[in-house]
Design a protein that fits this description.
The structure is a single chain. Helix content is 5%, strand content 39%. It is globular and about 40 Å long. The chain is mainly beta. A seven-stranded parallel beta sheet has the order 1-3-5-7-10-13-16. A seven-stranded parallel beta sheet has the order 2-4-6-9-12-15-18. The protein contains one helix and 20 strands.
Amino acid sequence: MRNKWNSLIHLNAFKSVYQTIKNKRLILIYQKTKFTIGKNSKIVGNGYLIVGANYKGYGYAPSTFYMDSNATFKVNNTKLCNGCKVKIGKGANLEIGNTYINSNINICCNDKIIIGDGGGIAEDVIIRDSDEHDIKYDGYKKNNSIVIGDHIWVGMRAIILKGVTIGNGAIIAAGSVVTKDIPPKVLAGGVPAKIIKENVEWNA
């Protein structure tokens, strides 16, 4: 495991991490990963957090993990493969369970994102709970939380946008754009994503 710790970690952030991790939890930051934690932010939960891990011999693509001030990241044996870009905005809450996440994940959390346990998220998936810029019309919400349930399979290059809940056991087809809620145990796909088949099951 030599040369895995990244020299870009600021000492204050490094200290902050270990003040918030209890019960012998481990944070492992792989090389070519920029890891930044803002003031009063915290990482909580169970087990380990791994950021920027090599995926099947592909090498260490640059990764970025950034928490703004007063943000919270809840983990449960969470592993983010290389090429990941994770941003948790000021006061935002990100929760990732024990779900397999492939390389080049792009998560932008400015409100709240929950990803459950026992699922699989493929390469190049984008998950965003914010438009980042304001749009002016009645009833508009710039930020809106996302809930991705347990045992969910998200295919390559899918995009999951703000305000969406995906039910347990669902499958999101590759290249889909999810803009509305997806019920449990369905196959959904397309732009925007729609139900293709119901009562589906999948094995990891």
